[in-house]
Amino acid sequence: MTQPTDIRRVAPLQTALTLATNGVPPLPLRAGKVPFGNCRTCAKNACGGRPNMKTPGPCTCPRPCHAWAAATTDPNVLNSSQWATAWRQAAAIGYHPGGANLTVVDLDNADAITWARASLPATRAVPTTRGEHWIYQGVMQSVNAVRPGVDIKSLMAYVRWLGAGTGAMAVLPDAVRALTAKEPPTARKATEMPTVLMRGQSGACPHRTPTYLGRGITMAVQRVTEASGGVHATVYRTFLAVLSTHGRCGCLTDAHVARLFTAAQAKGESPRHCSDTWTNARTTLGL
């Protein structure tokens, strides 16, 4: 995704061809960042699309349809007469991140950006109208509203192209994957006291400063405190995110864990539920 010039200033089709050359499958978008509608032949995926709809490319009809699945890196398709009208009418360019082996964390406001800076590894960032797109190397399922102002766009999703961005691209971290995880339905037996729940290697965290860790715990507590519904699932995802970042390096202390448990209990979780949820999160991550 490295381009020598700002290709947003050139014609949509040329932008699309440049993206395709760099392995990023594009698609035309109408005003409002909306894909061109499915043709009548392909309504409700009547044409069959691709196997399981998990890979980008043109559908079996000649028109650009199926939203994200219309994205392709094939220049013959992008240049075809069937696509010509769509490119002439395009108000913007979209792309399928999963088709480029990418995951986009869509941060929709300043609060979401602040949370990301405290909770996620730095990576390539692209400014948007209200926030930023953080782009990681790797794919995962796409889920909207994983937390306030945060969407995950990767497989079976599209994102508006706003430029190549700045910064080195990091590998997709467990902390992002954890945002979409659901707690196993059966809680595992665990002790109720947090003092014995987290024991890793001793010493300072090798990849985060104490200030970074403190901000991360504060943001985690805030996420639980502000949960307006689905508290149990929010607590689990929060525990999972904290452990995925710091669970293997031994930097979490009993005081950190106690802060998380206290926030969860203030939202109605019992001490036992907190302990079981923490253990489930550790088991999910293999800790």
Give an account of the 3D structure.
This protein is α+β, with helices and mostly antiparallel strands and 287 residues long. The chain is 34% helix and 14% strand. It has 9 helices and 10 strands. Strand 1 and strand 2 form a beta hairpin. It is elongated.
Distance, first to last CA: 35 Å
Low-confidence stretches: 2-9, 50-57, 186-204
Radius of gyration: 22 Å
Count of DSSP E strands? Answer: 10
- Share of helix, binned: 25-40%
Structural shape: elongated
What's the helix-strand series? Answer: HEEHHEEHEEEEEEHHHHH
Reported for the largest beta sheet, the result is: 6 strands, mixed
Question: How many DSSP H or I helices?
Answer: 9
Q: What would the average pLDDT be, to the nearest integer?
A: 79
Q: Look at the helices and sheets and give the structural class.
A: alpha+beta
Beta fraction: 5-15%
List keywords for this structure.
287 residues, alpha+beta, six-stranded mixed sheet, four-stranded antiparallel sheet
How would you summarize the topology of this molecule?
Blueprint: H1 12-21, E1 26-30, E2 34-35, H2 75-78, H3 81-89, E3 92-95, E4 102-107, H4 110-119, E5 124-127, E6 132-137, E7 143-147, E8 150-153, E9 159-160, E10 170-171, H5 174-177, H6 210-225, H7 231-246, H8 254-266, H9 271-285
Parallel strand pairs: 6-10
Antiparallel strand pairs: 1-2, 1-3, 3-9, 4-6, 4-8, 5-6, 7-8
Helix pairs in contact: 6-7, 6-8, 7-9
